[in-house]
Design goal:
The protein has an eight-stranded parallel beta sheet. The protein has helices at residues 17-26, 49-54, 77-80, 98-107, 153-167, 181-189, 209-219, and strands spanning 4-7, 31-37, 63-69, 87-91, 111-116, 134-138, 172-176, 194-197. The protein is globular. The protein has one domain: Aldolase class I (TIM Barrel). With 221 residues, it is of the alpha/beta class. The protein is built from seven helices and eight strands; from the N terminus they run E-H-E-H-E-H-E-H-E-E-H-E-H-E-H. Strand 4, helix 4 (98-107) and strand 5 form a beta-alpha-beta unit. Bound molecules: D-xylitol-5-phosphate and zinc ion (ZN). Zinc ion (ZN) binds next to strand 2.
Length: 221
């Protein structure tokens, strides 16, 4: 399976989001990465639940890849209208009952994913592998775009891939944070499947969007 792309919409042109989504959809990009932050789990706020819900409107084939950086994320699922075709990442560090939150996402017809921050060991996901579509491996500390990669992220990616190959090879790996032109190829070779592309690649202003998307796919094939 070739690498899948999930451009991070918080890095896009925030004054023309409808056009941005339509362009990505037309380019055949699989996912739109939507970061939701509660200003508690992380010291930042991005889109509110109304925006997260509105992103669905222009979508034809592209799917919402919702990354919820919030404590007890299930409180927002109704307002976001979580449903079919969505993939939804919740943080291991932010849920009282991870099993229950993952089951709630699946009950709504969406694919649950489990996110782990840089300081959380890969072993934390071991008990949830049969309940998730993907592990969202944070390669920066969650909360802000434009950060450098967290120390040891590449080695952690290989360790996660090893764990999944042994325990449940169906589970995908999504990498999120400083997925740069320079690093994405190595991330692919170490086992990443879905790439959150933000300010250090697709939204890095080096290329027009269509060229950037094409280049990215060529690097993670
Ligand atoms: C950070 C977000 C990332 C961020 C990626 O908490 O989860 O999705 O937008 O942006 P870059 O690629 O600039 O690190
Ligand atoms: Zn994210």
């Amino acid at each position: 399976m070739a690498g899948l792309l999930s451009p991070s919409v918080m890095c896009a042109d925030l004054l023309h989001l409808n056009d941005e989504i339509e362009k990505l959809d037309a380019l055949g990009v699989e996912f739109l990465h939507i970061d939701f932050m509660d200003n508690k789990f992380v010291p930042n706020i991005t889109f509110d639940t109304n925006m997260v819900r509105s992103f669905k409107k222009p979508m034809k084939n592209i799917r919402r890849d919702i990354h919820i950086m919030a404590f007890e994320p299930q409180q927002f699922f109704d307002a976001m209208e979580i449903g079919e075709r969505d993939i939804v990442s919740v943080h291991y560090e932010a849920c009282e009952d991870v099993h229950a939150v993952l089951a709630d996402i699946r009950k709504r017809g969406a694919e649950p994913c489990l996110a782990i921050s840089p300081d959380t060991p890969v072993d934390a996901v071991r008990d949830y592998l049969d309940e998730i579509y993907a592990v969202l491996l944070m390669t920066v500390y969650p909360g802000f775009a434009g950060q450098p990669m967290a120390k040891g992220s590449m080695e952690k990616l290989s360790a996660l891939k090893k764990l999944l190959s042994e325990e449940n090879p169906h589970v995908l790996i999504e990498v999120d944070g400083h997925v740069s032109w320079e690093h994405c190829g190595e991330m692919r070779s170490r086992g990443a499947d879905i790439f959150v592309a933000g300010s250090s690649s697709v939204y890095g202003k080096d290329y027009p969007l269509d060229e950037a998307v094409k280049k990215f796919y060529s690097l993670v094939d």
